[in-house]
Each structure stands twice: as C-alpha cells, then as structure tokens.
Amino acid sequence: MLGFCEKCRDMVEYYVREKVMTKNIKGKEVNYKGKVAYCDECKSEIFVAEIRDYNLMKLDEAFREEEDLITVSEIELILEKYDIGKRPLSLLLGWGELTLTRYLDGDIPTKQYSDTLKEILNNPYYMKELLEKNKGKIKDIAYRKTSVAIADAKADGLFNIDSINKIDNIVKYLLVNSSDITPLQQQAQSQAPLLGYQVPSQPSMSSDRYSSTLIQKYVRREMLMNSPLFEEWVSEERKEAVRDTNKKRIIETLELKFDFISKNTREYIESIEDDNIINRLFEKAIKTVSVEDFEKLLEKVKNLQ
Ligand SMILES: [Zn+2]
After folding, report:
1. How large is the average pLDDT for residues 215-238?
2. Which residues have a beta carbon within 5 Å of ligand 1, which is an ion?
3. Could you report the per-residue pLDDT of 49-71, keeping only the tens digit for each?
4. Domain residues of the chain, as ranges?
5. Which of 5, 145, 165, 203 allows an S-S link to 175, with CB 3.0 to 4.6 Å?
6. Which of 71, 58, 63, 70 is nearest to 27 (CA)?
7. By three-state DSSP, how is residue 104 classified?
8. Angle, nearest 10°, between helix axes 111-122 and 124-133?
9. Which fold has domain 2-67?
10. Where are the beta strands (DSSP E) in the chain?
C-alpha cells in the first residue's frame, strides 16, 4: 500500500501497527485500539486517510460502549425490525425529522435519546404504544406496515422469553396430534449428540432435558404458530401486556399528579386482574383530586372483590 511520507516527500510503501490510543471526549478519557501507519523507508509515522477513518470508527465504538450508547447498526436494526423509515420514526418519537438521519450518519445521540432507542429495539410493546399514540404524525401506509412488523416482532419475542414450559406443552401436543413431526424428530435426534443432549426415543419430553434451542430445532416455528395452544397462549400474553400497560398508566398518572404514591397503593394496583376495574380506575386516576380519595376508592374495590 502507498501513502505520502512528509519526511521522504514521496509516495512510499507503509506498514501498519495496532496501538492503544486515548482521547478525551466530553471530559472523559476513552481508550481504544487504533492503528498507526509507518513509512517503510524512514519508519516515521505517516497520515493515511483510511486509517484515520478506521481510528475514528474504533473511537466511536469505544465511546458508545463506555457510555452504553446505541450503535449505528443497532439503529439500522430498529428500522428493519419495525419496517419503518428513519424520518417516520423520528416523527413518532417527537424528535426533529432529521434526528435519526444524523445518528445514522454517525452523530452520537444523547444518553436519553439512546436509551429510548434501546427500549424500542428490545420492546415491541413500547414501540406499539408509541405508534398508537402518534400515528397521526405519519402516513397511513407507514402506520400499517409498522403495525404488521410489530406483531411479528412480538411473536418472535415469545421465543426469547422464558417460556420453555409453554413451548414444551405445545411440542407435546404436536407430537400427539401430528405425524409431520417424525422426520424432524429424527433430525433432532441425529443432531443432538453433537450438542451433548440426551434424546429419548419415546416422544415424551421434559424441559429439564431439553434446552429451548433444541425444542426450537425440533419443531418449526410455523408448526408452533399453527397450533391452537399457541393461539391461546399469544392472546393470553397480549391481554396480559395490555393489562400491564394500563396498570402502568394508572400509576404514572397518579405519580404525575401527586408526585408520590405509597408502595401499598402501587402494589395493590399491580395485583388487580379485572380489566373492567383497571379501565375504570384509570378514568378515576385522571379525575381524582387527591391521593387519599383514590385510596378510598381502592378500599371499595378491595371490599367488592
Ligand atoms: Zn518516509
């Protein structure tokens, strides 16, 4: 490779070495592993544009890691996951239309904006809330595309959360009810020794012998999703999620109005399972003029149950 050496005043061959570098950003020392180019002839350091770019990228990565900030590729992942453009997403967030464009170009977000983006990336329910609240700000077609993507993301999420027992039940159900499973079962058995698992020859399963990964290998995702048990489970999870969101709203509303609510009140609200009561309490939380009034109301609810 050729670069210009100031000393030799000529284009020269150069070699590259790694070097731990330190840079002060916003009053913080950030260490990162960069690269330095040296002239083959006189061994002095030379400037190479690609190496400067590489070092800037490494510095950026190190700073984001240090501050626990979202990366550019994670932001790209958000757009892909929710099938949304950078401008519509900026608008949904109530940010400037070009904010995400700047972040994708490498501008470093504030901690607060970064945390919001991370929450979106990891939590489709939060994204759903945001979308519903601000759908007026984006085009209808964008709204519909993103709604579909969110539903997919939620379904995917069900495989990541700790639901091995539920999956296990569905797998049992499928084993009993479907002959399609056999080739896959054999496939899993032939793969299992490599993974170090004991696979029973009988189609009986228990979660202590199976990791969720193996169960996922065992049964294709579409098979799970077509199972009536899965349908039931998803709608159950959905109801629970909506209920949790509504409870959170009640608590947030009270805290917004009165700064503070007691641990008992919070815990009691969190324990309510009746959707009608939760909805009514939300209205009451908005209207109530004091925490005490609201707590009296909660007492009434307790006595009713
Ligand atoms: Zn030189």
Report:
1. 63
2. 5, 7-8, 39, 41-42
3. 999 989 988 998 898 888 889 98
4. 2-67, 72-160, 164-226, 242-304
5. 203
6. 63
7. helix
8. 110
9. Ubiquitin-like (UB roll) (3.10.20)
10. 2-5, 10-25, 28-39, 45-46
